[in-house]
Amino acid sequence: MVETRLIDGKARAERLRQDVAAAAAALKAKTGIVPGLCAVLVGEDPASQVYVRSKGKAMREAGLASFEHKLPASTSEAALLALIAQLNADDRVDGILVQLPLPRQIDPQRVIDAIDPAKDVDGFHAQSVGRLWSGGRSLVPCTPYGCLILLRENLPALSGAEAVVLGRSNIVGKPMAALLLAENCTVTLAHSRSRDLPALARRADILVAAAGRAELVRGSWIKPGAVVIDVGINRMVLPEGKSRLVGDVAFAEAQGIAGAITPVPGGVGPMTIACLLRNTLIAACRRRGLDEPAL
Ligand code: NAP
User: Fold this and answer.
1) Which member of 17, 88, 111, 210 has the lowest number of beta carbons within 10 Å of its beta carbon?
2) Residue-wise pLDDT tens digits, 1-24
3) How far is the CA of 229 from the centre of ligand 1 (A)?
């Protein structure tokens, strides 16, 4: 039986936010520059509204500037592209974040690829993706980068480790695999058509679950001592009609087997916003050819 360590993403994210705030204050004192993020929200999706509000609050708390454009659900693709062009040209804006999902009449990839890659703080632009996979310098998607920070601090070495990523989305699974490969892990990227997921997962020294399926990963899928990063956020309805958030890993079953695990909530989630602040600050420095803080 292994003693399972809890990876406190909330505390680590708070430290990163403080580090960003300190670096932003130093940048402002030296140059007068205040890095700014502009969030673009199209439509009335309640979850997206909550995300955009909490991102704005976190930006202001770190001493960064936060701008917002709220557009009606009927906005045309051409109108959104015109706004992106305007934000690309606005020197106060270092990061542009288009909240997904977008209404049906708008092609999300066309909009993402219209963002100046230097302001692509989500790291979803085709140029950012290409650079990430080819080992170039790019802005890296926030959720997988947050996972990487937690992994670096919870494993003695990543090099040579067997890493299994469950889920191959463009925002989590694929960039996570690219980051782990760059750390010299041996990476398996599994998905809904993979055969024998439990056997694949059991090979993993590092198991990243990002499938969006409540408690998909059972205790028996985990190699004793593995570090488990649970990206999933799923709402599970309880028998009495209430609901609670659960991850993609059966957390109670992982106890005594995993070497370390992130909880849901309080694990990866808080790291995502902290990494967005980090990316905005880094984008502000890189765009102007200034030294960037090591964060
Ligand atoms: P997504 O776009 O729906 O992708 C899910 C991936 O998981 C797909 O590649 C899918 O395979 C795979 N998958 C689904 N069911 C599976 C199964 N039974 N077995 C194996 N693979 C399966 O989701 P996402 O946007 O990557 O998000 C994944 C989860 O992370 C969600 O719960 C989301 O809420 C959460 N999330 C959390 C954060 C955070 O900050 N903590 C950020 C982003 C996302 P196919 O490709 O074959 O369909």
Assistant:
1) 88
2) 889 999 999 999 999 999 999 999
3) 13
- Ligand 1 center–CA 27 separation, angstroms: 37
User: Contact 182/135 with Cβ under 8 angstroms?
Assistant: yes
The ranges of the chain with pLDDT < 70 are none
**Residue 250 beta carbon below 6 angstroms from any ligand 1 atom:** no
Q: pTM to 2 decimals?
A: 0.97
Say if ligand 1 is within 6 A of residue 231 CB: yes
Catalytic residues, by residue number, are 55, 99, 122
